[in-house]
Structures are given as structure tokens and as C-alpha cells.
Design a protein that fits this description.
The protein is an all-alpha fold and 111 residues long. The termini are far apart. α1 (11-28) packs across α2 (32-50), α1 (11-28) runs antiparallel to α4 and α2 crosses α3 (62-81). 70% of the residues lie in helices and 0% in strands. The radius of gyration is 13 Å and the shape is globular. It has four helices and no strands.
Length: 111
């Protein structure tokens, strides 16, 4: 079971996170609960690996922040990869990356 990430616990961030989950669900057909758990797991893993809260990432310089966001997006793609139809996997993976990167960058703009 995945622990709820505190960063996305605020009402505004939670709503945006749900929008990302729903959009990824629309294009992949993957169960929303699985996507939500995978996304929260990626955020929690980032915090554990870096020994700091996700909110501190948004204080980083643009390039460093973008690199970390790219790592999180890649982790999310990997966790969803097994559930994606192999006939459309490349296109779908690119769409997931676009949606997830947009979501994370959008959160940065609100802090």
C-alpha cells in the first residue's frame, strides 16, 4: 500500500494530481487507482532517495529542477509500462511523459 504523499495533500495540488491521473487513464485505459498509486509511489520514492520533501525541489534552479522532474516522469513511465498495449507503447509513453511533465511544471508555477 502506498502512503499518501503530503505534497499532493493540499486541495489544489490534489485536484491537479487527479486531473493528471484521469488524463493518463483516458489515453492508456489503465485503472485510475493503479495510476494514482504509481504516481504517489514515484513522489514518495523521490523524497526518500533525496532525503528531502518534494516541495524543496521547486526552490532549485530551472535546469536542476527539470532534470529531477524528468527522472520522476521516467519512473512513472516505467511503472505504467507493463499495463500498456505493446502496439501503441511508444506513442503512449510519450503522451504520459508530456502529461506528467506538464503537471509537475504547473505545480512549480503555483508555489
Amino acid at each position: 500500500m502506498v502512503t499518501k504523499n503530503q505534497f499532493i495533500g493540499s486541495e489544489n495540488r490534489h485536484e491537479k494530481f487527479n486531473q493528471m491521473v484521469e488524463r493518463i487513464g483516458e489515453i492508456t485505459g489503465i485503472d485510475l487507482k493503479f495510476i494514482r498509486q504509481s504516481g504517489e509511489s514515484v513522489l514518495n520514492h523521490w523524497e526518500e532517495r533525496n532525503h528531502r520533501k518534494l516541495s524543496t525541489l521547486f526552490l532549485a534552479k530551472d535546469r536542476a529542477r527539470h532534470n529531477e522532474i524528468h527522472k520522476m516522469v521516467t519512473s512513472l513511465q516505467r511503472s505504467l509500462e507493463e499495463k500498456i498495449d505493446s502496439n501503441h507503447q511508444n506513442v503512449t509513453m510519450k503522451k504520459i511523459a508530456t502529461i506528467a511533465e506538464y503537471w509537475l511544471e504547473d505545480l512549480y508555477s503555483q508555489i
